Amino acid sequence: MLARLPLALLWSTACWAAQMYGNGGGQYFCTTKDPEYELSGIRVTLGPLGIMRSVQVKNGPSWDTVYGNKIPGKTEEFLLAPGEHIIEMWGSYKAFLWSLGFYTDRGRYAIFGKDEGSNFIAYPDDDQKVLTAICGQYKMLGLTGLIFDWDYIWEEEQGNATAPER
Length: 166
What we know:
InterPro entries: Jacalin-like_lectin_dom, Jacalin-like_lectin_dom_sf, PolyBind_ProtTraffic. By secondary structure, this protein is mainly beta. The protein is about 5% helix and about 50% strand. Strands 3, 4, 5, 6 and 7 form a five-stranded antiparallel β-sheet that branches. It has a four-stranded antiparallel β-sheet with strand order 1-13-12-2, with no helix packed on it. A four-stranded antiparallel β-sheet has the order 10-9-8-11, with no helix packed on it. About 35% of the residues are buried.
């Protein structure tokens, strides 16, 4: 059994090493991190009470899977301009997530839901990193916690990978 532990650790996503915002609990998820496309949008669905039911990200031209409760509700989305990146996230939670906001490197921001309960703010440990994926947990009524995956966006320049200019 101990021999299987290292394999399980290798298969787990690095996203789970980061801080969970919210109480957590329920089924785990992690959005796809597409090496060919940058994150280009976020869509959330809110229930009638204001609980955040689901989250979905867009990588390049394609929307990823909807994670969370898939029952229809009020859907809100924010699309990023080409070359625009999310550099800060914030929100609030009680037993479930109630609000989610973010700020981009072009000074734009969006807020989904309403501020209820405990607040959080998240940003990368390096100002050259941007949001590349969202992980978290959900139960039947909605999202219970989120983890934000921050990474560098690499640009090819004469065959060498370099961090983007800011």
